[in-house]
TrEMBL record:
The keyword Transferase applies. Keywords: Methyltransferase, Transferase. This is SAM-dependent methyltransferase. One of its GO terms (molecular function) is methyltransferase activity. It comes from Actinomadura chibensis. It holds the Pfam family UPF0020. One of its GO terms (biological process) is methylation. The keyword Methyltransferase applies. Residues 257-277 are annotated as: Disordered. It comes from the Bacteria. Residues 140-264 form the Ribosomal RNA large subunit methyltransferase K/L-like methyltransferase domain.
Length: 353
């Protein structure tokens, strides 16, 4: 067995920085369980030279192992720990195709931490029937409550096709403006257009469609990726995307503090619209069956939520009643962490048989 040490990336968010080591431990455990045949052992926090590391033991890491572990959400550096405590750097091979500013430049109230967004995408991929597709394949990603696109940007960073839905027109406009400006400023070859979605002469919503290449050469050769965002109700997802067209569904549910949702059947509010619900459970009970129909067999869904306004058991029941198999191992129960005084966040994943 060989010992390894993982140096955790510093975070500008003090609260997330305090939770980061514990979250990486859980994420590493999921990677080991789902994609590395249980070969990762003895995961713990260890001080080396007065600096905290996450250490573990494993058989000698293969090139494919390194390719996988290089994408751990808060990984800053990976070392092999040799006799005498010498740290020998392991050359990382992350999937990242673009600069980190794609994920960090947007600043707004309510934004999900980009490290956590990456973690949620990673562990959802690990919950699927083909976990190594994250690095050897090209899973298609949907965020059915995408807000201003943090999940979409992370998928783009990985070189994946991604789609999102959001009911908030301001968020749709903000993301469209951001991604078009970012692509132009970074001289990424692309095409982007916004068009109304019409069915039987009725306008159902708006769609942003972006086709881009990681390089000019890739774009010219047709090796492109696509980002699609629909400004509409997530409960109508099946009207905008084909059944069984996504491998991963990844979303951050409303926390019941600043965000709300309008589940079908909600009581009327002002202007005849349903009142905002502060419970993610009500929203997910209505939405998950719609989302599950969009998953391919073997695909997975990952949802994060505020545990103060929803119990894990309730979300597990919703996923199971939609025909999904909840991942409930000890590794998958290690992600609960505090965000602020009103929010303690956790995540849950499930696979479509």
């Amino acid at each position: 067995m060989t010992a390894y040490g993982l140096l955790v990336s510093p975070s500008h968010n003090r609260v997330y920085a305090q939770a980061a080591a514990g979250l990486v431990k859980a994420e590493l455990a999921v990677f080991g369980e789902r994609a590395m045949d249980g070969r990762v052992r003895d995961i713990r926090e260890t001080a080396i030279g007065g600096v905290p590391y996450v250490t573990f033991t494993a058989d000698e890491l293969s090139e494919q192992d390194v390719r996988l572990l290089s994408n751990l959400s808060s990984l800053y550096a990976l070392f092999r720990i040799e006799d005498g405590g010498l740290l020998r750097p392991v050359t990382l091979q992350p999937l990242d195709l673009f600069g980190s500013d794609l994920l960090t430049i947007q600043k707004y109230s309510g934004k999900t931490n980009e490290y956590f967004t990456k973690l949620l995408l990673n562990v959802t991929a690990m919950a699927s029937g083909s976990p190594m597709d994250l690095v050897t394949g090209r899973p298609r990603v949907l965020d059915p409550m995408c807000g201003r696109g943090t999940t979409l940007n992370q998928a783009m960073m990985y070189g994946l096709d991604a789609a999102g839905i959001d009911i908030d027109a301001k968020d749709f406009d903000a993301y469209a403006a951001f991604i078009k400006t970012w692509l132009k400023n970074n001289r990424v070859k692309h095409q982007a257009e916004i068009a109304p979605i019409r069915r039987e002469k009725a306008v159902l919503g708006r769609r942003l469609h972006v086709t881009l290449g990681a390089s000019r050469e890739r774009y010219k050769s047709g090796e492109t990726m696509e980002i699609t965002v629909v400004n509409a109700d997530s409960l109508d997802a099946g009207r905008f995307f084909r059944p069984a067209s996504f491998d991963l569904i990844v979303t951050d549910a409303p926390y019941g503090v600043r965000h709300g949702s309008r589940p079908k059947g909600g009581q009327p509010g002002r202007r005849g619209k349903p009142q905002l619900s502060r419970s993610p459970v009500e929203l997910l009970a209505a939405a998950v069956p719609e989302w599950a129909a969009l998953l391919r067999p073997g695909g997975a869904v990952g949802i994060s939520w505020n545990t103060y306004v929803g119990r894990r058991e309730d979300l597990a029941d919703i996923l199971a009643s939609s025909g999904l198999e909840v991942r409930d191992s000890e590794a998958y129960r290690g992600f609960r962490h505090r965000v602020d005084q009103a929010i303690t966040r956790d995540l849950i994943t499930a696979r479509k048989p």
